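In this section we walk through a basic example: taking a raw amino acid sequence and producing a predicted 3D structure, encoded as discrete structure tokens. The instruction is simple. Fold the sequence below.
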Amino acid sequence: MKKLILSALGMMCFSLSVNAQQTEEPQPPARNTEFSFFAGAGVAIIGDYTINDKLAMAGMPQIGDTSPEVTLGYNLAGKEFSMDLEVNANYFDKKHPDNRVQMGAAGIILRPHYVALKNNRVMLSGGLDLNFIASTFELYRRGMVTDLNNLNPSDYNGRVSLKNSLFYIGPSVKFMFLRNYDIPLSITTGYNIAFTNGKWKSDFGSVANTVNESGHNRFYAKLCYYLN
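The resulting token sequence is shown next.
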């Protein structure tokens, strides 16, 4: 009887062990790469455009030195590298009693970084910005009236519409914090210098005495929230 009881207990333990091994779910391997979407806002110190000299000579309002910037992007991060693909937009508006200048810009940044510090709380990285920005510029007389019964464009004036595009390169630094919470944030700053000519053009005709913006510089700082 004693042997029978011991045998039954042994069979029971063996059965429980087998069932535990069968029901235990395999653990996925740890990921070495993290993927995150992010959104943010900040400020761009856009420096002095060459076209501002022309505006000053004409007594017109000039493009300002600072502009708000909004950002949406995607981050790929490993143990020793980080890569951002980011789109951003800026807008500037300045009014004088008789005239008004508006400027909008949209850009895309590729930001390869080396990760100098990374743990479950913070990450610090640094590297380059490869930044392409396309801008539109509108200068017009305030109070203009368009008569829909007279749509002959030769009867309207008082508006200048220009555009340009620039490719920038420069250093940038990113500090990410609160990584172990549900609100991971980062502060990113960069200084970019344009090395394409960025001549001002128009979709509505040729531009005489145009100027280029090669060497134009911009500094930005932004706070971003990581969405996943």
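Looking at the output, two observations stand out. The radius of gyration is 29 Å. The chain has a mean pLDDT of 86. In the next section we compare this with other chains.
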